[in-house]
Structure formats: C-alpha cells, structure tokens
Amino acid sequence: MKNIFKALFVAAASATLLTGCIKETFPMEGAATSDQMAQSAAGMAASVDGIVAQTYQPYYFYGSSNQQEFDISYAGLLITYARMTNDIVNNSATIGYDWWTGYAGAYGYSMKNTTTRQTVPYMTLYKIIKSANDIIGPLAGLEELNADQKGYLGTAYVYRALMYHDIYNLYLPALNNYTDCSKVEGLTGPIIVSSAEQETEYKTARAPKEAMAAFVLSDLDKAEALFEGYSPATGRYPGIPVVYGLKARMYLSMEDYANAAKYARMAIDASGKTPLTEAQWHDPATAFCDAAGNNSWMWYYNISGNNMGNLCNPTGFLAGESDWGYNSLTQMAIHKWLYDRMNRTDFRKRSFIDPDRETYPASYYEWCSESYLKAYPFEDQPDYKSFKIRCKAGDWETYSVGGAVDWPMMRVEEMYLIEAEAIGMSQGEAAGIAKLEEFMKTYRDPEYSYEKAKSTFTEGFVKSFQEEVLFQKRVEFWGEGVGFFDAKRIRPGMKTWYPGSNVIHDTMKYDIEEVSPFWNFLIPTNEIENNDYILDEDGVVTEIDGVMTTLNNPDPTNKVQNVTTQY
C-alpha cells in the first residue's frame, strides 16, 4: 500500500483547497494537530465541502497532465457501474470515442490489474476514504461535539460507508464459469480506518465480506446517531434518510432481505420524497440535471461550471443533446432488448428513439430547442438513442452551462424497488409482486402486469421475480449506476449477441451465463506488490503474488474469448 497511499495523501491533502481555506491561525511551523483541525470550524467545513467536491472532480487520480476522460472521481464510477451490464450501447463506428468501452466489452486489457480501468476505481474509492478519515480522526476523538461538528462527522461517516459499500460489491468475487476466483472467495478490500495508516507503510489484508459489511453498518449507525435532530442545508449533503437508504443497499448486498425491506421503507418515509412524474422525467431543461426540478432526489452532487471541462464531465458522455462532449460522437443508446420489453404505456420509453419513425415521429418527443433539431435532424438520429439525461437549462451548446448539472446519488425510486425485491425474498414472492405492481402502476405504467411481464421471460434475459425487479432498475436508472451490484448478486447472465442486436461492436457481443467474469474488479498490481498481507480462503495470512489465470470460455459459441484475470 505504500506507493498507493503516498499518492492518496498528496491528493487528499489538497481537497480542502477546492472550496476554501482555514481562517483560524495555526502554528507557523510544522503541521496542525488533529485537535487544532477539530476545533477549526472553517477548516472542518472546508474539509467536508472538499469531500463533496471530490465526488465529481475531473482528472481525479491521473491529473490533467495524463488525461483519462473517464477519470471523473465518483461520477465516473457511477457511469462505470452503468456500463457493466451493457445497458448503454455505443452507436459510434469508432469505439475510441467511448472512454468506458473497456468496462462494456470482453477485452483482455480491461481484465488485467495493470490497467487504468482497474486502477481508477480502486484509487478513487480509497482517496475519498482518505478524505473522510481526515475528518473522522480529529472529530471522533473529541469528548463533546457541537451541532456543526456532529454534522461534519456524520457526513464523513456516510461518505466512508458509501465508499466501503462499493468496495464490498466491486471486489467481492462472484464465482463464475470463466475464471478461477477461489483464492479470494469471500474477500473484499482492505479496511483503512485512519489517515495515519495511509500516510505510512501500513499494510492490511483484504477484509472478509462479513467484516466489511459490519464496518459499513457501524459507520452508518454512528452517522444515524450524530444526525439526530440534524437536517442538511441542501440535498448535496446526506441526512437520516440517506443513512437509511445506504443501510437498505448494504443489507440487500448481504442478502439480508428483511432488513433491506425495513430500511428501504424507513428511507421512503423519512425522506418525504416522491417518484418523478412523467412531466419531470421528460422536462428538456431539468430532467436528470436539476435537483430543484423534482421531489425525488434524496442525495446528489452539484457540478460547477468553474470546475469542469468540455470533455471530462458526465453530461457530455450521457446527455443525448449535448454538443460539447463525446456523446455527440458516440450517441449513447439503450440496449434493444431493454427497450423492446418495455410497455408502450410506460412513459420512460419516450426517453429513447423508437425505430418506428412513422408511428413515433419527432413530435412524439420533447426537445431542448428547435435549434438542436436543425443541427441534428431527427431522421439522422440512431435508433434507441437516449434523451433521458438532459442539459442544464436546455443549453446543448455551452458546456459550462449545460454541463453544470446536479447529478443524483440516490433517488427514492431505488428504495421502492429495493423494498419490492426484499419483501418478495423475505415475505413470499406474491407480496413482492404486489409491491412491484403497486410502484409500477402508480408511478410508471398504469397497465403494468407482472403476469404479462412474466409471459415474456426468456432464457438469457429475464427468468425470475428478482430479475424482473432488476430489469425495472436497469430501465429506471439507465446511466445512473444503479443495478450493477444487484446483477452480481442475482446472476442474470448477459446476452448481447442475438438477431437484431443493436450492439454494433463485436468486442461487446457475447452470451454469458449467470455472471460475467469482468464484473469482478481487481486489486491493482501496485497494491499487490506493496502489500504482502493477503487472506486466503481459510483466513490465513499469506504472501501471494498476483496469480495469472487464463481460461478459455467453455461456451461453444465462444463469445467471451480468452478472458484473462489476475488476483
């Protein structure tokens, strides 16, 4: 860990510079102590704002001198999660414009822990953990906390819990038919609880999943206690409802369905939020870009026009009307089978261009402006292209305006769908179906019927109640990064190689049983080389070099070829 965390320390130490400076006078020589930091109101406030700012910081790990356009901190990870299930389809003939291609295709390079595709997620998550630890360390040691300090400390616990929740899901191997994960079965990532550990040569083992889950829940318990009587100033900061929402996510990952259902309902009730309406969903100036335009978002981050580039920003990658980013070249679309399986009465379907241009002409959709259609005629748009995510204020030409968006980190709709699945798995499938139908009929499709949906269940696509809930998540949260962790847990398989598929690149066409091997993210090589402490399946500390295992796909169609992974 020495090399990695040396880099983390430098980066995280500058995080507070993003939003302000410490006004209190500190010693002129040496560094401020933890106690001095804890007592500095401005310093703590800047540190907390620094964490928030880090979630969308462009060139977060590699820096602008080595530009990797997918390196957008946590915002980039959310897009990564969205690409893992291949719900987002690249319409460009040149895949080089798609910086997330390595996460969507069965590429050997994306499966090696020497690549940027594996380094960026690991480094991003632990960098934000470092920033959270910088706040937790000073404040957790105080005997008494004032109201502001409780808010700061609770916020840091929430962010740390979120990062470790993601580490749990990314690095816990899902056993599959293509690669050997036995050496790390049941293991997640290292748990680092203090900044001092990251500033030294401290080394720690990968935590067993039970230990990681307990740690996440412990942080959330602490945040819940600190947030009693506290309300964040804006949705940019988490409060009690977000704590409940993260507990629901964690319990779902643990397959503790009773608690997942419990906390999902508590999150719904505590938040006071309501699902997006059809008008809000399709508003060309505010849809999925402006928190003020709806009562659905429980938590979000805000991208400033002063801290973004025309390329390294999420809107430029996913907003169908944006003219400044890579999406004007890739023209991201929804996977055909997702689109085809949606009812015509599901208003979400109108977020994507229907191949039947006569029945569903340009007037069927809501556009940001006539000038956009003049520049990009409707007849030239590719089938299934997405217009779900919009440019701020409808400005499709100016990246510093249209790209300066709010971006959801948690919407209340996720809680409804967690509740439905969890009730179905803990109280009986019929109860879960009833919850799913209630949500769908009330908020998305008045003609939705589970029995009708079930009649379309096909091998390789949807086969069970859980997969139907996952399907609705994949539609509901297209582009938002919700659903990938569920897929690792539910094991629905991947089918992008079929007659009429709109996946145009052969490297992204495959037929995978249950779990894709590249859903298992890898500990980067430089971490392995500097950390001798690896827990094997028996809980024994051993020194293990990264063992390369290459297995040819046993699938006779050979859609996943020479999948290579390293642990």
Give an overview of the whole structure.
The structure is a single chain. Helix 1 (2-13) packs across helix 6 (116-140) and helix 18 runs antiparallel to helix 21. The two termini are 15 Å apart. The protein folds into 2 domains: 1-230 and 507-567, Serine Threonine Protein Phosphatase 5, Tetratricopeptide repeat (Alpha Horseshoe); 271-492, no CATH class. The strands form 5 sheets. The protein has a two-stranded antiparallel sheet. A two-stranded antiparallel sheet has the order 2-4. A two-stranded antiparallel ribbon has the order 5-6. With 567 residues, the protein is mainly alpha-helical. It has helices at residues 2-13, 34-39, 41-54, 73-84, 101-104, 116-140, 147-171, 195-199, 209-226, 240-253, 257-271, 278-282, 314-318, 327-330, 336-341, 370-375, 399-402, 412-426, 429-443, 450-454, 465-476, 484-490, 525-529, and strands at 88-89, 297-302, 333-334, 406-411, 494-495, 511-512, 534-535, 541-542, 548-551, 563-566. The longest helix has 25 residues, at 116-140.
Q: What are the main properties of this structure?
A:
567 residues; mainly alpha; Serine Threonine Protein Phosphatase 5, Tetratricopeptide repeat; 10 strands; globular; disordered N terminus
